[in-house]
Amino acid sequence: MSNPSVYPVPDTYLENTLLDEEGYLELYNRSIHDNEAFWREQGQRLDWIKPYTQVKDVSYNKEDLHIRWYADGTLNVSANCLDRHLAERGDDTAILWVGDEPGQSREISYRELHAEVSLFANGLKSLGVKRGDVVTIYLPMIPQAAVAMLACARIGAIHSVVFAGFSPEALAGRMDDGGSRVIITANAGRRGGRSVVLKQNVDKAIALCKETSIENVVVVNCTDDETPWQEGRDVDYGKLLAAQDAECPAEEMGAEDPLFILYTSGSTGKPKGVLHTSGGYLTYASLTHQYVFDYRRGEKFWCAADVGWITGHSYVIYAPLANGGTTVMYEGVPNYPDVRRVAQVVDEHQIDILYIAPTAIRALMAEGDKPVEGASLESLRLLGTVGEPINPEAWKWYYRTFGRSQCPIVDTWWQTETGAAMLTPMPGATPLKPGSATRPMFGIQPALVDGEGNILEGATEGNLVILDSWPGQMRTVFGDHQRFIDTYFSTFAGMYFTGDGARRDEDNYYWITGRVDDVLNVSGHRMGTAELESALVAHPSIAEAAVVGFPHDIKGQGIYAYITLNAGEEPNEEMRLAVRNWLRQEIGPIATPDVIQWSPGLPKTRSGKIMRRILRKIAANEFDQLGDISTLADPAVVEQLISNHNALG
Ligand code: 6R9
């Protein structure tokens, strides 16, 4: 019997695939039952300088928590992404860069990329950057972002990429936390036909740093915009390169030496510096890229994420390059000059695989079929999504339009912390269900637990945990190992807690239901409510603030801020604008609130804890589901909030 809600593996994939369903189940079972042997084998996808003899050394026990993979092996990540391809594929395109303006593009071969990375790595050394130093990267989507990351990896420096949409304040916080003394930026970037200044932001951020002092700012000139310059501190990227030797031997690094830090939001406190190491991360990224995308060399792989996010790290840079593939790096946005751009780029460059976020799909879907009008799209053989749950309508639209009802969609669930895909279909192996991230990657043991950490069996719903380690797992929170233990291993003893809720159906497919903690997912970007609230209360007119997410057609979740002003402050339009701009300034445009509601009081328990559940229900217009409000210190607040909410219209 055919089930209309299940999309079987297309014939084209049955004939010619890396792995069919039986193959997946067999390999998955072996990866669990013979776990070490499986990972011992997988480590072989990399070139090691000194081969590892140890594979897995892990304890999830709170008292002695440690995660180490391939620990006695040595390697260099940039050599794995570049040097080892030179002999056989040196002239293949490593990066296909596509500019913001239509018609602009550039192909960079492995040989060219290797050459520029070597020069820049020497340039970093000439500025005094050493193995183990943290280097901040604040760049738009230009090839130099890849060069900068790989150059750090080449000399054993730890990169900390900060999304170029973040404000000077947010950038300063990350530079302080990482303690970096060098930052790489551009004078400005181009996005959607506009130029976005970056160097000025860096100058402001440097002035705001409290813990670290920046010694050098390397500036890539990518627009004609004028750039403020501080002699002695600021270094022109082109001039720096011109002064270097072409040869830069790759540093021999331990498998467990840090590769990068990437900041991400959690439910409490400041963003955390998620730390990934070298051997395990690259092994896992490479493995997933090959199987999830059934990737074959020569294919053009377009992951549309920014390098400022983990998806950009793993699937724009590290995995495709480790696998000797061609990665497409797109500078622009999906709707510039108009909503047909994504399809036009696919056709113009004959792209094979397209991997984008549900929020982009929903934004395009809002335009009907216009985004694919006049496009052939025949080069595409596989689609992917990542970053947030995809609603079945958007899935089906993507499948029908971009996929021409022929391309499977791999809905990949994972996190900054997990390094690469964890729950995902594989195109030749997994019948698809729209909205489900389906089944686990090799070596991954997901489970659902109740509030007490009891493992639930069968078709059910609960908190998503992972029972055992995998090589791509984060190793610590930079500078705060206790926070790592507290955040991920303390809610449920002996398990990695993802912070997500999920449902498992009768076919053992997983359906992510969203965060169960106070983290919002706005257009696929993670934002902690605590972070937003602490930025808000730093405003001189604000006494108190509570932020919740609410369902938003395009963004998935929108930002809803309840704000109590200081006595004497006027809750008028001017103030609303000021508050809105304040969040943009403190964090960045991605933190722009969708709704600001003035709230003379907030619903609090007698112990003073804000009951967000109630605020979430009001924001979502679900007044009949407020639940028990009798434990509130002042239940009358609720009625006031509802009437203010309704007055917003
Ligand atoms: C890769 C990335 C992680 C959070 C994660 C979850 C949500 C990511 C998803 C998904 C449903 C998917 N998420 N992929 N939810 N289906 N396919 O996005 O990392 O920025 O750290 O976000 O995003 O809630 O916990 P990150």
TrEMBL record:
Residues the record lists as binding ATP: G387, E388, P389, D411, T412, W413, W414, Q415, T416, D500, R515, R526
Record-listed N6-acetyllysine modification sites: K609
Cofactors, names only: Mg(2+)
Superkingdom: Bacteria
Modification note: Acetylated. Deacetylation by the SIR2-homolog deacetylase activates the enzyme.
Domain AMP-dependent synthetase/ligase: 83-466
Domain Acetyl-coenzyme A synthetase N-terminal: 24-81
GO molecular function: ligase activity
PROSITE patterns, per the entry: AMP_BINDING (PS00455)
Chain sites annotated for binding Mg(2+): V537, H539, I542
Keywords of this entry: Acetylation, ATP-binding, Ligase, Magnesium, Metal-binding, Nucleotide-binding
Catalytic activity, as annotated: acetate + ATP + CoA = acetyl-CoA + AMP + diphosphate
InterPro entries attached to this UniProt entry: Ac_CoA_lig, ACAS_N, AMP-bd_C, AMP-bd_C_sf, AMP-binding_CS, AMP-dep_synth/lig_dom, ANL_N_sf
Domain AMP-binding enzyme C-terminal, chain residue ranges per copy: 531-609
Gene3D superfamilies: 3.30.300.30, N-terminal domain of ligase-like
The UniProt record lists the keyword Nucleotide-binding: yes
Record: residues binding CoA: R191, G192, G193, R194, T311, N335, S523, R584
EC number: 6.2.1.1
Its biological purpose: Catalyzes the conversion of acetate into acetyl-CoA (AcCoA), an essential intermediate at the junction of anabolic and catabolic pathways. AcsA undergoes a two-step reaction. In the first half reaction, AcsA combines acetate with ATP to form acetyl-adenylate (AcAMP) intermediate. In the second half reaction, it can then transfer the acetyl group from AcAMP to the sulfhydryl group of CoA, forming the product AcCoA.
Family to which this protein belongs: Belongs to the ATP-dependent AMP-binding enzyme family.
The name this protein goes by in its record: Acetyl-coenzyme A synthetase
Annotated gene: acs_2
